[in-house]
């Protein structure tokens, strides 16, 4: 896929939501276990965002409120968005797995998975270390995600 | 209260993953001193393999300009080969490239002399080329 203008602020908003909801949910969840049902909500949010930009709640929040209000400034770069979508998919799958454990009552496993997602979101948010993107590059390298490209020269 | 363990277990999982990546990276260091590709006939100067990818921002904004500036001051016989890992995944696998950019310095015989993971400045690469046998005047 070609590099296109891509606003990284959408990713930052998504990561901020993930970290805030997971950490706050965990703290509340220590005394009020049903708050763990926030994890399936986050999973749906992440997977919907991968499915279509129209269902990307952080993006809509950014475009309709945070950006116009000047709370979050745009950071447009020329980049292929595919690795970031893949990273979101990985986060969504982790949260979907956490949701299964919420349903089955294994809250410890659910929160471990959620904390992994929060930690990876933090790495990306604070240091621009996108572990999902690294995974994507590795999968491309081993041919698991074939890209139809012409040789560079 | 067993839930208190959740962040600790997650930290351990991520720490384990980081350790795994570190071990893999040290595996890449084992390539130093080895020849992985036969050198095309007549090469008498060291060369650089520059592994990049379309999605690697720092490759395009920093590493490529640094290599271009370096190349401008080098003997034309010093080859800087740009390799897109999506186009040549087998070569990336052979050199155990784990992250981008990666630059690998080869001597005239094709033996790996230096591996840089992440951005490498032109100054560093030039020094490594000299260590790999490039004449200082070049």
Q: How is the main sheet of chain A built? A: 2 strands, antiparallel
Number of helices of chain B: 4
Shape of chain A: globular
Which descriptor suits the 3D outline of chain B? elongated
Helicity level of chain B, as a percent range?
Answer: 40-55%
Largest interface: A-B, 39 and 31 residues
> Can you count the beta strands of chain A?
2
Radius of gyration of chain B, in angstroms, nearest whole number: 18 Å
Strand order of the largest sheet of chain B: 2-1-3-4
CATH architecture of the largest domain in chain B: 3-Layer(aba) Sandwich
Distance from N terminus to C terminus of chain B (CA atoms, Å) equals: 67 Å
Spatial ordering of strands, largest sheet of chain A:
1-2
Distance between the termini of chain A: 17 Å
Can you give a write-up of this model?
The complex is a heterodimer of chains A (153) and B (138). By secondary structure, chain A is mainly alpha-helical. Chain A has one domain (4-141). Helices cover 66% and strands 5% of the residues of chain A. Chain A is built from six helices and two strands; from the N terminus they run E-H-H-H-E-H-H-H. In chain A, helix 1 (8-29) runs antiparallel to helix 5 (107-127) and helix 4 packs across helix 6 (131-141). Chain A starts with a strand and ends in a 12-residue tail after the last helix. Chain B is α+β, with helices and mostly antiparallel strands and 138 residues long. Chain B folds into two domains: 1-30; 47-131, Glutaredoxin (3-Layer(aba) Sandwich), CATH 3.40.30.10. Chain B is 41% helix and 17% strand. Chain B has helices at 6-29, 57-72, 89-94, 122-131, and strands at residues 47-52, 79-84, 102-106, 112-117. Chain B has a four-stranded mixed beta sheet. In chain B, strand 1, helix 2 and strand 2 form a beta-alpha-beta unit. In chain B, helix 2 crosses helix 4. The longest helix of chain B is centred in the first third of the chain and has 24 residues, at 6-29. Chain B is elongated. The mean pLDDT of chain B is 86. Chains A and B meet through strand 2, helix 5 and helix 6 of A and helix 1 and helix 3 of B.
């Amino acid at each position: 896929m070609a590099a296109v203008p891509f606003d990284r602020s959408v990713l930052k908003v998504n990561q901020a939501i993930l970290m805030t909801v997971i950490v706050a949910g965990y703290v509340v969840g220590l005394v009020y276990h049903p708050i763990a049902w926030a994890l399936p909500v986050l999973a749906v949010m992440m997977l919907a965002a991968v499915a279509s930009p129209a269902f990307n709640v952080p993006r809509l929040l950014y475009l309709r409120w945070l950006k116009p209000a000047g709370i979050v400034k745009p950071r447009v770069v020329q980049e292929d968005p595919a690795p970031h979508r893949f990273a979101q998919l990985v986060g969504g799958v982790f949260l979907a797995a956490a949701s299964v454990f919420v349903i089955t009552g294994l809250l410890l496993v659910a929160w471990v998975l959620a904390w992994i997602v929060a930690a990876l979101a933090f790495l990306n948010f604070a240091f621009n270390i996108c572990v999902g993107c690294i995974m994507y590059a590795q999968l491309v390298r081993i041919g698991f995600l074939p890209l139809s490209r012409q040789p560079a020269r | 209260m067993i839930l208190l363990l959740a962040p600790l277990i997650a930290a351990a999982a991520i720490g384990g993953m980081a350790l795994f990546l570190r071990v893999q990276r040290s595996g890449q260091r084992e390539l130093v001193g080895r020849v992985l590709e036969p050198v095309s006939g007549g090469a008498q100067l060291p060369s650089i393999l520059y592994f990049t990818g379309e999605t690697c921002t720092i490759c395009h904004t920093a590493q490529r300009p640094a290599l271009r500036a370096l190349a401008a001051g080098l003997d034309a016989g010093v080859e800087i080969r740009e390799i897109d890992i999506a186009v040549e995944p087998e070569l990336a696998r052979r050199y155990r490239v784990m992250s981008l950019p990666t630059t690998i310095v080869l001597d005239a015989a094709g033996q790996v002399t230096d591996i840089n993971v992440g951005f490498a400045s032109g100054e560093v690469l030039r020094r490594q080329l000299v260590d790999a046998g490039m004449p200082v005047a070049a």
